Amino acid sequence: MRCLQEEFERLHQFLRDEEMIRISALKEEENQKSQMMKEKIEQIDREIESLSNNLGTIKNDLDAADMPFLQNFKFSKERAQITLKDPVMPAGALMNVGQYLGNLKFKVWKKMMQIVQLTPVTLDPNTAHPLLFLTDDLTHVKSSGDGQQYPDNPERFDYYHCVLGSEGLNSGTHFWDVEVQNNTCWSVGVTTASKQRKGGIFFDTGVWRVRYMAGQYTSQSPFLPPMHLTLEKRLKVIRVQLDWDGGKISFSDPLTNTHLCTFTRTFKEAIYPFLYSSCTDFPLRILPMQLSINVKPLH
């Protein structure tokens, strides 16, 4: 409950901040436009005052003797011909409403992508071994060394330090990247929904994985002995790609674009990602995906 409330509070705070930023920008433009109109009105007032002064001077000349007025007639005529131009609204005087209201929801949503992450796999705490510690966002796991207060439900591992993904995959193509850097004992792979999780038989059948232990990499699939994998460099990230319809599971290094191994099998039930870790110093981390926006016209 606490984690859920904190996540929503982050989103609410983001929206409050965005509202404040946009309202502040709107007020700033409003002040600029008001100042522009104020200066324009002051200019018109000065022109009116100048014209009034000229008219007053001409009236005084008319009230004077005829000879001085005739002597200054040319100058008086020029002053009398001064006119005020019709007020013209300066360019940019109106508020640019479209800048603030146009596609407002889309603009805010697009900016929200800076704080929102999409993780292709989230871990299921109801399956985690009691010695595993999961982060609040359910993307990191490591062996804690101290038992967690988890109930002994049927879904939970009680022998191997494993945890499953929260969603089973029963169609389509999927992939996810797991950061394994510095973790000294791990397994990454998939298993079937019906696979027994209690006791020490989990890795005997229904599991496809790559394992790192004692400085050695091996791959494993059901009913076959582990196969040694030769790598030039230690893995930092491992990618798992599942083609459920095509019956294929592939492992690779996405940083070097190096293929590790591929298994084929006809699947008849949901497949679940799983992680195993007995390292207490460094976690395994499911990496978020890079998001992009593809805008297309509606037809």
Ranges where pLDDT stays below 50 over 5 or more residues in a row are none
Architecture of the largest domain in CATH? Answer: Sandwich
| Percent of residues in helices | 25-40%
Please give the CATH class of the largest domain. Mainly Beta
The gyration radius over C-alpha positions equals 37 Å
Strand order of the largest sheet: 1-2-13-4-9-10-11
Overall average pLDDT: 84
A few lines on this structure:
With about 300 residues, the chain is an alpha+beta fold. The chain has helices spanning about 1-65, 65-70, 75-80, 95-100, 105-110, and strands at about 130-135, 140-145, 160-165, 175-180, 185-190, 205-215, 215-220, 225-230, 235-245, 250-255, 260-265, 270-275, 285. A seven-stranded antiparallel β-sheet has the order 1-2-13-4-9-10-11, with no helix packed on it. Strands 3-12-5-6-7-8 form a six-stranded antiparallel β-sheet, with no helix packed on it.
List the helices and strands and how they pair.
Elements: H1 2-63, H2 66-71, H3 73-80, H4 97-101, H5 104-112, E1 132-134, E2 140-143, E3 162-164, E4 173-179, E5 185-192, E6 207-213, E7 216-220, E8 227-229, E9 237-243, E10 248-253, E11 258-264, E12 271-277, E13 284-286
Antiparallel strand pairs: 1-2, 2-13, 3-12, 4-9, 4-13, 5-6, 5-12, 6-7, 7-8, 9-10, 10-11
Description of the molecule:
The structure is a single chain. The protein is of the alpha+beta class and 299 residues long. The chain has two domains: 111 residues, no CATH class; 162 residues, Sandwich (Jelly Rolls), CATH 2.60.120. It is built from five helices and 13 strands. The strands form two sheets. Strands 1-2-13-4-9-10-11 form a seven-stranded antiparallel sheet, with no helix packed on it. The chain is elongated and about 125 Å long. InterPro entries: B30.2/SPRY, B30.2/SPRY_sf, Butyrophylin_SPRY, ConA-like_dom_sf, PRY, SPRY_dom, TRIM/RBCC.
